[in-house]
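Give me a protein, keeping tokens residue-aligned:
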Amino acid sequence: MIFSLQGAVQELSPTYAVLNVQGVGYYVGISLMTSQKLVHNKESFLFIQQIIREDAHLLFGFHTRLEKEMFNLLISVNGVGAVSALILLSTLNLEEIATAILSANSALIQKAKGIGAKTAERIIVDLKDKVQKFKVEGEEISAVVNNKTKEDALSALEVLGIPKRMSEKIADRMIKQNADITTEELVKQILKNI
């Protein structure tokens, strides 16, 4: 079983890469998330999931071990194949997938092309007890993003002459209500609530 590959990126597209490992080119299916981390003709390392079927031996590559773990969880769900899992990983990041599963947000999961309502519900039911670790790590990422959003919004408001201490509590409340709020939206909400 191939666990990982390291070599030069011989070919690169949003859905696959060819990794040249000592003269042998390995065709590896990848997500958009992984594709964005690879550079043509540069040395790269990928975690590999090998799937052996009657008609094919397939390789799927991931930039991080967590992405590989999420892929394996997704393909463990009845009705979710490797391609559907890659499409979902290309549509949403790991934190978004975990959050959607934990909050039973099937509409968000259905944003991935080819995943219907029944499959989304099955993903939620089958994986709700298995994605907690993605969320825990995701919360740290989310907190960093929220701090940046909050700082940017408060700085913008200070330029407008609004003291930081006046808008900080409103910012915290808005971020708690909507963790994915943009800086612009946060500024607008603070201005409305002052």
Notes: Residues 136-145 have pLDDT under 50 and may be disordered. Strands lie at 4-12, 16-21, 24-29, 43-52, 57-62.
